[in-house]
Design goal:
With about 625 residues, the protein is α/β, with parallel strands linked by helices. It has three domains: about 210 residues, no CATH class; about 210 residues, no CATH class; about 160 residues, no CATH class. The strands form three sheets. It has a six-stranded mixed beta sheet. It has a two-stranded antiparallel sheet with strand order 5-6. Strand 3 and strand 4 form a beta hairpin. It is globular, with a radius of gyration of 27 Å.
Length: about 625
């Protein structure tokens, strides 16, 4: 691609740095939609950070990154015409990679220059005196500029791709592991740009590029791991009638799963086998060998072959049972779990809550205690108590600034699955209750006062929405939880400060701006309000905003004295909960700290371990 050769199709392995350094890529208008979902971003981040962490040690110096193993990220196909490079295949991957690079650049923004890695020109570069993004799509420019400059961007009336880019960037901020956000940042960036490779295939005629694309994506020429597993299982069933029956059973279940997502059947098989059969996991040390949990995630079709005895695949009867009974049973419940994660469902709402904060490991944990002998009511109760445990566990961790990313929690989740696998309902409840009781960090016993910072706005929005939902339900009011957590549209809710960003108004209590900012960002000084509210009133002093708070949700309304008059449901809730709600005519430092204590006690009510035992 560097230099036009009209004779040959060229293919070359390139590092991320080589691929993106000062090179401009265009995308044809009919390929411009960015469609990656949360699942794809989480998998990308988990794969990249997981590979890096296999080699990284805290005592390493940066030059040692050169000896770390490489990672292959796939291929891209480019058609070069009139001196421009058009991406035929791979724009989803390159766009996501660009978002990750921007995130890392923002992460290192305030570091010393000697600890920074120069990656600006991998995102945008100057050509003929004009600075532009290396992946050129006109309708994304303003959005990408906002992300690059680490500022908010209004997605209203934007294209689907722009809205999706904003959400996926938030996903990166959410799932990027905390352990790589400090000292390891330059190490990880060095590794990403030097040791992560892609194959760049360049054609100089569009028809050649599309021929390559069609050949590489011809699903009939390559079998997926799911198809290879099915072929192996069916090959061990000699009875033709039974073989056809098993094939049809498998096909119907896969079709159902793939209505959720085209790759859902593989995700199900990984979750199922891990939940019911994984006995081991890779040791958390450099050079350790992959075990059951890890191999199921990367090569489940081979793992099944290697574990016939464990799975009861001793004869034809075992293979038939594996498909018509095990696969069928667990795929049906997995389907129910996935649907509950995607759409709020009464009775399975905690599954939805966990999905809302981007926790992708819950499906395998939820499957772990259920058995084919369980009645439906028992299974639903098991799913409920496990989801409640995860809900409490994850929100406590967020409140205590603990990372909930895949690489951080995979070992914990594996150990949890082992402890609850196939357990009867009452024993399951006791195990989970004891686990949560044994946790030292709670909402009222946290490492430091919970506050808003650059990386946790999405989490705080979720926490505030749950608090409001809790109060509303127990006050006999209709809940608007789904409205509070929506992330799109003109009516979306946002985390807002009670104090406007005017430290000069608080000089009597805060001599330094940094002290004012620290208190202003405490969760006790935050509310969840419609976006247009902040646009209209956000800059006003508290006393002028107070009257407007009374027309908002119950948490904002509780600041006003009118909330405690002729409001029997809310006042009854206060009496029963014994929470110290009160109104504030003014809102000074001591008032904010008092409100902070209220939120901490409220969180203990929302995420109450006693719910597990009910």
């Amino acid at each position: 691609m560097r230099g036009n050769d009209n004779r040959q199709i060229q293919g070359k392995t390139r590092s991320v740095k080589e691929l993106l350094s000062g090179v401009k890529y265009s995308i044809d208008y009919y390929q411009r939609e960015y469609r990656w979902q949360e699942k794809h971003i989480v998998e990308l981040i988990n794969d990249l950070t997981g590979c890096f962490l296999e080699d990284y040690e805290n005592h390493h110096i940066r030059s040692q990154v050169s000896s770390y193993r490489c990672y292959f990220l796939g291929s891209i196909i480019v058609s070069q015409r009139s001196g421009d490079n058009f991406i035929i295949d791979g724009q989803q991957r390159l766009t996501s990679l660009t978002l990750l690079l921007i995130y890392l650049n923002n992460l290192q923004r305030n570091r010393n220059e000697k600890d920074k890695v120069a990656i600006d020109d991998l995102v945008l570069s100057t050509k003929y005196g004009i600075k532009s993004f290396n992946i050129k799509v006109d309708d994304r420019i303003k959005c990408m500029e906002a992300i690059y400059e680490d500022r908010d961007f209004d997605e209203n009336d934007q294209t689907e791709s722009v809205q999706n880019i904003l959400v996926r960037y938030d996903d990166i901020k959410t799932c990027f592991p905390d352990e790589l956000k400090d000292k390891a940042v330059p190490y990880f960036i060095d590794w990403l740009i030097e040791k992560v490779h892609l194959v760049e295939i360049v054609a100089f005629k569009d028809e050649d590029a599309y021929t390559i694309f069609e050949t590489m994506n011809d699903r009939g020429l390559s079998l997926t791991p799911t198809e290879m597993l099915k072929g192996y299982l069916l090959a061990n069933i000699e009875d033709l009638t039974k073989k056809n029956s098993c094939n049809m059973s498998w096909k119907k279940r896969v079709e159902k799963l793939n209505q959720i997502n085209k790759e859902e059947e593989a995700d199900f098989i990984k979750a199922w086998l891990r939940s019911q059969h994984a006995q081991s996991i890779r040791e958390r040390k450099r050079g350790a060998e992959p075990k059951d949990f890890d191999r199921i995630g990367t090569e489940f079709h081979r793992w099944v072959r290697d574990n016939e005895s464990l799975l009861g695949l001793k004869d034809q009867i075992g293979f038939i049972r594996f498909i018509e009974s095990d696969f069928d049973f667990y795929s049906r419940w997995y389907e129910s779990i996935r649907k509950a994660a995607l759409k709020f469902t009464e009775g399975m709402e905690y599954i939805f809550y966990n999905a809302q904060i981007g926790f992708t490991q819950q499906h395998q944990v939820l499957l772990s205690p259920i058995t084919k002998d369980d009645q439906e009511e028992v299974i639903l109760n098991k799913l409920r108590v496990v989801a409640i445990y995860l809900d409490i566990f994850l929100n406590r961790r967020m409140w205590n600034y603990r990372d909930n990313g895949y690489s951080t929690l995979s070992y914990n989740m594996f150990q949890l699955m082992l402890s609850i696998r196939s357990k009867p309902l009452e024993e399951l409840k006791n195990i989970l209750y004891q686990k949560i009781i044994d946790e030292k960090e709670t909402f009222t016993n946290s490492r430091e006062s919970f506050h808003l910072h650059g990386m946790n706005r999405k989490h705080i929005k979720h926490i505030l929405a749950r608090m409001i939902d809790y109060i509303e339900k127990r006050s006999g009011l209709p809940s608007d939880y789904l409205k509070y957590v929506t992330s799109r549209g003109k009516k979306k809710y946002e985390v807002e400060h009670i104090w406007a960003n005017h430290p000069e108004r608080h000089r009597d209590e805060f001599e330094h701006n940094s002290d004012f900012d620290k208190h202003r960002n405490l969760i006790g000084g935050l509310l969840l309000l419609p976006k247009q509210f902040n646009a209209s009133y956000g800059d006003l002093p508290y006393e002028q905003k107070l009257e407007h708070y009374h027309g908002q949700n119950v948490l904002a309304k509780s600041l006003h004295a009118k909330a405690y008059v002729h409001n029997p449901g809310f006042t009854r809730f206060i009496e029963e909960s014994e929470l110290p709600f009160k109104s504030y005519a003014g809102f000074k430092k001591d008032d904010l700290l008092e409100r902070q204590k209220l939120y901490e006690q409220l969180a203990e009510k929302v995420w109450n371990p006693e719910e597990i035992l009910i």
